[in-house]
From TrEMBL:
Gene3D superfamilies xref list: 3.90.1150.140, Uncharacterised protein PF07075, DUF1343 (3.40.50.12170)
Pfam families: NamZ_C, NamZ_N
Domain of life: Bacteria
Start and end residues of each Peptidoglycan beta-N-acetylmuramidase NamZ N-terminal domain: 53-251
InterPro entries found in the cross-reference section: NamZ, NamZ_C, NamZ_N
Protein name: Uncharacterized conserved protein YbbC, DUF1343 family
Length: 395
């Protein structure tokens, strides 16, 4: 296993544990100051010479406005195939929408889906490769499925003796370490690893941990290289240059996503089918707040959103100072639903998969306070903070 470190990359140090208050404002790092792994060609192009290369990438795999596929082709890299995760290679598929295999219209390269029936590459697909590259912008929330696709690719690479190269990118929620640690009894594609909801790690760090903790079979034989982000610390504010998926269009949605993602297991709308997904909450029968909106079908983002074409009322969170995991929204809406004798978690099994445990849902239904709920996962967070320490690449 190799970690290619630039001069500015540093090792170790932990993040904030169990903190739901945003840290004091800092000067935002700009893309020209932070250099993702993909932009450091001198560090990894030598690893690709004479190799048959596969790429697990999407629309976020950009270097100075150029897609990594085009950049590598311009550098005479022998790309054999492109693998696409949830939302597709171009990032224009709604959450859960089928991603089909085919041919990339621009390059003519085979485009192979890793979302849907086949979440892992086939033996035949892997045998055509010498090395596979993962370069996708994550948002640092366990139930965001790009890290699950990375896991399956790591497993395939280990099984078929294919080298794996992870080009690291910043975690916009990297300053937080919070939420329940996943119980493997609730393992699914929206939660594959025994890590907190907000794990505070980049994909490169997480790849090192997946290998080091042997969360894949034959982990020891995986030839893994990580190119770290230069000029980066995990507490730096970072504005993503490309939306990571159709319903996380801006920094505010990404900041609210850890808290609002759970509402996908309730009857509420989180704004899918509006110009502000994951920045509002609303319901059509009773409400917390007086902000009104009507979800509609939006091709590529929400063809059949919850409460489609139904006027809804609730909370406008577009201007709040969001950050970390805030349970107050779930608790407040659960109390309102309880007062109306209406089921709040109408998809309890899905809620438990998102949470990685049934305990969080039960605690909210039982009326525990946010402070009581937070206290229940502090011991596991402390244990995880020590467990992740050997794999951290940034201060």
């Amino acid at each position: 296993m190799r970690i290619v470190l630039s001069l500015m990359a540093v090792l170790l140090l932990t993040g904030l544990i169990g903190c739901n208050e945003p840290p004091p404002p800092q000067q935002a790092a700009t893309p020209e100051h932070i250099t993702p792994g993909a932009a450091q060609l001198d560090e990894y192009l030598p690893l690709l010479q004479g190799k048959r290369v596969g790429l697990l990438v999407n629309q976020t795999s950009q270097v100075a406005g150029q897609h990594l596929v085009d950049l590598l082709l311009a550098n005479q890299v022998n790309i054999v195939s492109i693998f696409a995760p949830e939302h597709g290679f171009r990032g224009d598929h709604d959450a859960g929408a089928k991603v089909s295999s085919g041919v990339d219209s621009k390059t003519g390269l085979p485009l192979l889906s890793l979302y849907g029936a086949n979440k892992a590459p086939s033996a035949e697909q892997m045998q055509a490769l010498d090395i596979v590259i993962f370069d996708i912008q994550d948002v640092g929330v366990r139930y965001y499925t790009y890290i699950s696709s990375m896991h399956y690719m790591m497993q395939a690479a280990a099984t078929h003796n294919v080298a794996m190269l992870v080009l690291d990118r910043p975690n916009p929620n990297g300053r937080y370490l919070d939420g329940p640690v996943l119980d493997l009894a609730f393992q699914s594609f929206v939660g594959m690893h025994p890590i907190p909801l907000l794990h505070g790690m980049t994909v490169g760090e997480l790849a090192l941990m997946i290998k080091g903790e042997r969360w894949i079979d034959q982990a020891a034989q995986l030839d893994l290289t990580v190119i770290p982000v230069a000029n980066y610390q995990r507490d730096m504010p970072y504005s993503l240059p490309v939306p990571p998926s159709p319903n996380l269009p801006n920094d505010q949605a990404i900041a609210l996503y850890p808290s609002l993602g759970f509402f996908e297991a309730t009857p509420l709308s989180v704004g899918r089918g509006t110009p502000y997904p994951f920045q509002v909450l609303g319901y059509d029968k009773f409400s917390v707040g007086d902000f009104t909106f009507t979800p509609v079908a939006t091709p590529g983002a929400a063809l059949n959103p919850p409460l489609k074409d139904i006027p809804s009322q609730g909370q406008d969170l577009r201007q709040i100072n969001a950050g970390g995991l805030d349970l107050s929204y779930l608790i407040t809406w659960q109390q309102l639903f309880s007062e109306h004798n209406t089921t709040f978690f109408n998809a309890p099994a899905f809620m438990d998969k998102l949470a990685g445990t049934s305990t969080l849902r039960q605690q909210i239904e039982q009326g525990l306070t946010e402070q009581q709920i937070r206290a229940s996962w502090q011991s596991e967070l402390q244990t995880f903070a020590g467990q992740r320490q050997p794999y951290l690449l940034y201060r």
